[in-house]
Amino acid sequence: MKFNAKKETENIIVFIREYYKKYNLKGVVLGISGGKDSAVVAALFTKALGSENVVGITLPCHSKDEDKTLAKLISDKYGFELINIDLTNTFNIFKNEITKLGCFNEKELKNSDINIKPKLRMSSCYYVAALYSELKHGTYLVAGTSNKCELYVGYFTKGGDSTYDIGVLNNYTVDEVIEIGKYLEVPEQVLFKAPSDGLSNQTDEDKLGVTYKEIASVINGENVSIETKSKVDRLHTNNLHKFNIPVYERRK
Predict the structure, then answer these.
(1) Residue 120 three-state SS
(2) What are the distances in angstroms from CA 101 to CA 94, 119, 244?
(3) pTM exceeds 0.85 for this model
């Protein structure tokens, strides 16, 4: 069945409006990375709530200047407020404290360095959401920007981009997000930009070792090579722990 971007977009907008009405909520805060997912989420919330109730945040942390430029392009397109919180010095201060634990080489620190950045970013989003809730006299939520392909293989950071109050792309593959983005007229240089975290100088697909199209094919039960299916299945299985926090049930 052909993907109906118009119908799906309208359904998401209704979902957002109904949820906000049910809980008497006011606005939304989200990180704007300069990539397709955050751009589409920002566009959806702008359509659903009005641009005056959407706050985008750029959160540079030893990242590319292009990300801020593209984020500005998105905010100008949809008319929502865009603020900048530079986390570079915060990250550097944290790293300086870590040196007190010992001398570590770059390889040993690589994953820790990458993973602390989205956690700093999400903490910033929640700080701003709490601040705007006070200033605007109504609750602001933090929106997630993960898509179905990322979630399936566990490509997110626990306590970082996995933490949010409302998610609207969780059940859409990357290709479907692009179709929604086309319908919402997201600028092409953002919509077709190679997905990356803006933190590690690698694309998402380079880090994963598989393409998002291949992940979607596995999710949809389509034919892929044995090697590809094995890679995707391994990523999925190895990251299942990210979805559930085990809690010991006290014995009676």
Answers:
(1) helix
(2) 12, 20, 30
(3) yes
Say how far apart CA 208 and CA 93 lie, in whole Å: 30
Convert the pLDDT of each residue in 85-96 to its tens digit: 999 999 999 999
- Give residue-wise pLDDT tens across range 131-166: 999 999 999 999 999 999 999 999 999 999 999 999
User: Where does 1-64 have alpha helices with state H?
Assistant: 5-22, 36-49
Neighbouring C-beta atoms of residue 36, cutoff 10 Å: 23
167-177 in b/e burial notation, b at 16+ Cβ within 10 A?
A: ebbeebbbebb
Please state which of the ranges 36-40, 149-153, 202-206 shows the lowest mean pLDDT. Answer: 202-206
Contact in structure between 173 and 212 (CB atoms under 8 Å): yes
Question: Could you give the dihedral angle defined by the CA atoms of residues 235, 241, 242 and 247, in that order, rounded to the nearest 10 degrees?
Answer: 180
Torsion of CA 118, 119, 122, 124, to 10 degrees: -110
Q: Determine the average pLDDT of the residues in 170-187.
A: 97
Query: What is the sign, positive or negative, of the torsion defined by CA atoms of 62, 63, 65, 69?
Result: negative
Sign of the CA dihedral with 199 first, then 202, 207, and 212 last: positive
Q: What is the mean pLDDT of residues 40-54?
A: 98
Alpha-carbon distance of 58 to 106, in angstroms, equals 26
What is the C-alpha end-to-end distance of the chain, expressed in Å? 51
Residue type, 108: E
Quick one: tokens of 179?
A: 């179709």
